[in-house]
Amino acid sequence: MNKKQLIYFLKTAELRSIAAASRALNVAQPSISQQIANLEHQLGSQLFIRDFRGVCLTENGERFRRHAESIVRQMEQAKLDIQQSEAEPAGRLAIGMTQPIGNILAVPLLTSIEKLYPNVELDLSAGLSYRLVELLKAGDVDMILTSPDSSDMTGIQQEKIFCEKIFIAIGRATQNKTFQALLGRPFITFQELAEHEVFVTDQRDSLGYMLRQYEQKTGITLKHRPPYGQLMTTLQYVTDGHGLLLAPSSAYFHIKKIGLIDDVEIIEPKLQRDVMLATHADRPKTNLMTAVRRQLLTVINKVHQEGLWQGTLRG
């Protein structure tokens, strides 16, 4: 298996036609057909279904496509990293973040990287913690910002960079008298919180996983309510005064800044969770990754110092 085979395979999969891939790559069609056939022989599996309309990927072809994209990206980045070890970082870096982390870090990270390193392209995605681990293991992202959950972290290198406080967020416009009684309070105990229904992700995700640990430790079980898909939808529901959200301040800081949400810190015990920067242990740490990590920590320090992300810096 070589890079040429992977490029021919990926271009054919993208265009769904060997003839179209031949024109796009300016390579003879029989050469592409032969390289794909060699690749299928080496893998011991058919990658394409061929008919008069062109080609489409088999199930194994779809599976291999993800690996091929990751391998080609890493090969290109490795070449850049060697060539530019003493120069300005360049290339593409894919980063996955949980939705609250992406909410507070994505824009300042993107804008600062664009200013500092114009030849760097960041590809940011957001998702639940266990999905991010899956993406990292599959090679679809180069690093993730997440918190502990029940995922198997074998082969994953983790760096604790922050410990965030967990709050209850309440819409200030609420007409619910029970919710109104919480407005302006600095604290609520875990025992008191059990009297209320709260929005929280399920146990596969880091927030639901963390809450389950506290419930087992205290013997107190909260009333869980599943979020409405994307974070923004649940935030709108809470802002309008219809529910309570269990979350770090990173999830709603922008709404609190304009006075639409109040928050109450949870104590006895204090709820908090680690935030980690995770990479695959078997993949090299490139010059680009080092530069982005450094700027990422700078951004985290800034939003923490501004009081937007409540918690404690690690390291």
TrEMBL record:
UniProt key word Amino-acid biosynthesis: no
GO BP, sorted A to Z: regulation of DNA-templated transcription initiation
Every HTH lysR-type domain range: 1-58
Cited InterPro entries: LysR_HTH_N, LysR_subst-bd, WH-like_DNA-bd_sf, WH_DNA-bd_sf
Molecular function GO terms recorded: DNA binding; DNA-binding transcription factor activity
Annotated family: Belongs to the LysR transcriptional regulatory family.
Protein name: HTH lysR-type domain-containing protein
Species for this entry: Oceanospirillum linum
Lineage, uppermost ranks: Bacteria, Pseudomonadati, Pseudomonadota, Gammaproteobacteria, Oceanospirillales
